[in-house]
Write a structure and sequence with these properties.
CATH topology: Pnp Oxidase, Chain A
CATH architecture: Roll
Distance between the termini: 9 Å
Number of helices: 3
Radius of gyration: 17 Å
Number of domains: 1
Largest sheet: 11 strands, antiparallel
Structural class: alpha+beta
Helix content: 10-25%
Strand content: 35-45%
């Protein structure tokens, strides 16, 4: 992943604010326990759902079953928004990632992503990568894997000073 162009948007930032570095933004993505995934239904209505994620290889990865609404939506439109971070008004940083959700079926990539989930979640999410998908709990529980490499990311620092950072890739 190439380093993004990072800018502070003065329109939405206190005069004393500084841009949140990409390294700090990436650390927040790596530490996230829940990300909110926004997709679009075939009729144009939005769909938002929480997902467990893992950051590796310059992308945020999540899983879904083929019968889930997010999977159906991604088949028609892979453009997504993922959000994570603090929901507090005066503390922390909220992160928004824009990108395309890419369906991952390559065994080598799936193995790396499975390892990232195991490490990130202290072994609580143990996936077996085979046949182009993840299995968790036996052969009857397959799930599909999607990765989102950011095309743009926003880091919203809260409190004093409030700052709005944009990372463009």
């Amino acid at each position: 992943m190439n380093a993004p162009v990072t800018t502070l948007d003065q329109r939405y930032s206190d005069p004393e604010a500084e841009a949140v570095s990409w390294e700090d933004t990436q650390q927040l993505l790596e530490a996230a326990e829940i990300a909110w995934l926004s997709t679009v239904r075939a009729d144009g209505r939005p769909h938002v759902t929480p997902v467990v994620s893992a950051w590796t290889d310059g992308a945020l990865y999540f899983t879904t079953g083929v019968g889930e609404q997010k999977y159906v939506n991604l088949q028609a439109n892979p453009n997504v928004v993922l959000m994570t971070g603090s929901s507090d008004w005066v503390h922390g940083i909220g992160v928004v990632v824009e990108g395309k959700a890419v369906h991952v079926t390559d065994e080598a990539v799936l193995s790396r992503v499975a390892q990232a989930f195991a490490v990130r979640w202290d072994g609580r999410w143990e996936f077996e990568a085979r046949d182009g998908r993840f299995y968790n709990g036996g052969p009857d529980w397959p799930c599909e894997v999607f990765g989102v490499a950011p095309t743009r990311a926003f880091a919203h620092a809260k409190g004093d000073p409030f700052g709005a950072t944009t990372h463009r890739f």
